[in-house]
Write a structure and sequence with these properties.
heterodimer, A: 205 residues, alpha/beta, Rossmann fold, 6-stranded parallel beta sheet, 4-stranded mixed beta sheet, 22% strand, B: 465 residues
Chain lengths: 205, 465
């Protein structure tokens, strides 16, 4: 059956199924406040809360570039990618022991131990980093290296999920990243770094 | 003739498997409860609201479906419709062929399990690789998922290690970390070599045409970062009215499914990649799949279409915990499966009419359901449907004799005394096949008929003050 016929078939069956209903359920009115962890957020500095909540999901929030460089060096993550727009600012903090590329070569994904890209925002209550197509220089660079560093402006931290949903905007692709990629498929044991990063870092600027 | 198939399956289940399923589901349930009740003042208010919203959607699908189609088209998405599983698979194949594509990477989607997409594509010479770790293991084993969210809850690390060894993914090693790293290293090059990434969708907003995908492993994101074409297979019931509603549903889904505040990756997709973005699909297709859903919509059990596939009802169900998912012989096991699976059979309903009977109607599934589906009520409606359609129910004793006893006090009293004889009859030897099937696995407790009546009669009466 060609797709056009399937469309009509499905829609007419839907209409037929609903025709006998005397009354249809109305869209209820509510406030998303019921789905906000208010006790977690109330009275808190958002940058500080974000750091705390990231830590709960094994993420890491850093507030200066030298701390980031020290972290990467300590983990021997010396070869990586950096968004070309960020590199001029970050380069002075990186030593000669680092090899940082500003072009990402997808044929060599295993070469990059870290990837530094820009974040579109963050969500404090859940410790989430928000990425979108407009600010992420390469989707692959934020996903395939073991360490992903999202450079985040402090003014762009939302307090809760409903706020972040309201700010989704017109970007075709927005992704919330909450801690490192993980699985518990094998006997329910938590393992980090499945297909995406094993370390999720926010660098607050 | 098969009697009480779920019971039989449970009785024959390997001890290891039962333990894995029991522990896994129990742990998931306990964490969920803590998370919901620690953080929200009134978690039940969330469940009721989400249920009301989804009920509104399914009762207005005739307007929501064309609306979401129009939005998606305006967003640059190509929209297809598939009335049946076959049509859905054919639609995928047609898109693949039009692009000359031969390799697909697949994220976990339950609707593609319904249509058995991967097997269909393999038959047509297309590599369709599951990328979710659990689904990948199910695929290499030629097995089926036994849980909606935790597909390999029934397997232990030793079985997985043997599968990896057999598939040439390294020497035997049953350390979960090693297993995961091996899958990581193997699959990342598969994503990069693939032509098409296929996903489902957890929610679709009618207002914006935005679809939402939630995962923890990052596999669906990898599909959408590495390939140039995105196909999403979506059940027609996945709609929510507005973007505004997403926060409520995301909060509930992550907590109910995996006891997380939010899943690691929550992706909002409204079209192909932005032009300036080097990675990701330039072409995006959505296939809206019916495959029996409109029949469910026409039935008295349409409430089940609210389901957001979190798996919380499986985790809490005493029958699921003992029997495991495969006992249900369906893509959807557990309480939700006991309702949905027979209905999705359409005119072959009778084949799975036993599923709604394997329940004590304890109501735990309804209590945990993030969209407040009255599953016990729906189970009763399906039992009634089976009765009305004269579906044979092998193994169910006729109730006529009991009715006769229970309606006549003197006969009843006599039978209570006579019942003591039961203690001396070896029930396994009674030549009724259904009774033997039951008694083989169980011992009847000692008959104590009449004790309650004796107590009631002789109890010291309270005197009114």
């Amino acid at each position: 059956m060609p797709p056009a016929d399937d469309r009509e078939a499905i829609l007419s069956r839907v209409r037929g199924a609903l025709a006998p209903l005397h009354e249809r359920a109305a869209l209820p009115d509510y406030t998303t406040e019921i789905a906000v962890m208010r006790s977690v957020i109330a009275g808190r500095d958002l940058a500080e809360l974000l750091g705390e909540r990231m830590k709960r999901v094994n993420g890491l929030a850093l507030s200066d570039a030298s701390a980031l460089v020290a972290h990467l060096r300590a983990g021997k993550f010396l070869h990586g990618y950096c968004d070309p727009a960020l590199w001029p600012v970050l380069a002075p903090h990186f030593g000669a022991d680092f090899k940082v590329e500003t072009e990402f070569d997808r044929t060599r994904v295993d070469d990059y131990a870290f990837g530094i890209t820009r974040a579109a925002g963050a969500i404090a209550e859940t410790g989430t980093i928000v990425l979108n197509d407009a600010t992420t220089s390469r989707r692959l660079a934020a996903l395939t290296p073991w360490v992903h560093v999202a450079v985040l402006e402090r003014t762009k931290i939302f307090s809760d999920l409903p706020q972040a949903v309201a700010a989704l905007g017109s970007d075709n692709n927005v992704i919330w990243c909450t801690g490192p990629s993980k699985t518990a498929d094998v006997e329910g044991i938590l393992i980090e770094g499945v297909h995406g990063p094993g370390q999720q870092i926010a660098l607050l600027v | 003739m098969k009697f009480q198939q779920i019971d039989q399956f449970a009785a024959e289940l390997k001890v290891d498997t039962r333990a894995a399923v029991y522990d896994g589901s129990k742990k998931g349930h306990e964490k969920r409860t803590k998370l919901l009740f620690d953080e929200f003042a009134d978690p039940d208010a969330l469940r009721r609201m989400a249920g009301d919203i989804k009920q509104h959607v399914i009762e207005n699908l005739d307007t929501y479906l064309p609306a979401v189609e129009a939005k998606m088209k305006a967003n640059g998405v190509q929209v297809h419709w598939a009335a049946t599983a076959e049509a859905a698979n054919e639609a995928v194949l047609k898109i693949m062929r039009a692009r000359g594509a031969t390799k697909m990477v697949k994220a976990k989607t339950m609707v593609s399990e319904e249509t058995e997409l991967a097997a269909f594509l393999e038959k047509h010479g297309i590599e369709a690789l599951e990328t979710d770790l659990g689904e990948f293991i199910v695929q290499i084993d030629g097995d089926h998922p036994s849980h909606i969210v935790k597909p390999i809850i029934h397997k232990n690390r030793r079985e997985i290690a043997r599968s990896f060894e057999r598939e040439g993914l390294g020497d035997y090693n049953d350390d979960p970390q090693t297993i995961t790293r091996r899958a990581r290293n193997f699959l990342r090059h598969k994503y990069l070599a693939a032509d098409v990434g296929l996903t489902g969708a957890n929610f679709v907003s009618a207002e914006s045409g935005r679809m939402v995908l939630v995962t923890n492993e990052g596999n669906s994101r990898f599909c959408l970062a590495a390939t140039k074409c995105h196909i999403a297979m979506i059940g027609i019931e996945k709609i929510v009215p507005r973007d505004y509603d997403l926060a409520l549903f995301l909060n509930l889904l992550a907590r109910s499914g995996t006891a997380q505040e939010v899943t690691v990756y929550t992706e909002f997709i409204s079209g192909p990649k932005s032009p300036a973005q080097p990675d990701g699909p330039e072409e995006m297709h959505v296939i809206f799949v019916d495959n029996g859903r409109t029949e469910v919509l026409a039935s008295e059990c349409r409430d089940i279409l609210r389901c957001i596939r979190c798996g919380a009802c499986l985790n809490v169900c005493p029958v699921y915990r003992q029997a495991s998912g495969h006992a249900y012989r369906s893509v959807y096991p557990g309480p939700v499966g006991a309702v949905l699976s027979p209905l999705l059979m359409g005119d072959k309903f009778a084949q799975k009419a036993d599923l709604p009977k394997a329940s004590s109607l304890c109501g735990a599934c309804n209590e945990v359901c993030p969209v407040n589906i009255p599953i016990p009520d729906l189970l009763l409606r399906l039992r009634n449907k089976a009765k009305e359609e004269n579906v044979p129910s092998p193994g169910t004793p006729p109730m006529g004799a009991w009715a006769l006893l229970a309606s006549q006090p003197t006969v009843w009293r006599a039978s209570l005394i006579g019942g003591k004889v039961m203690n001396y009859i070896p029930t396994k030897l009674i030549p009724v096949p259904a009774l033997q099937a039951w008694a083989n696995k169980r011992a009847l407790p000692e008959w104590r008929g009449g004790e309650f009546r004796k107590w009631l009669k002789n109890r010291p009466k309270k005197t009114k003050p």
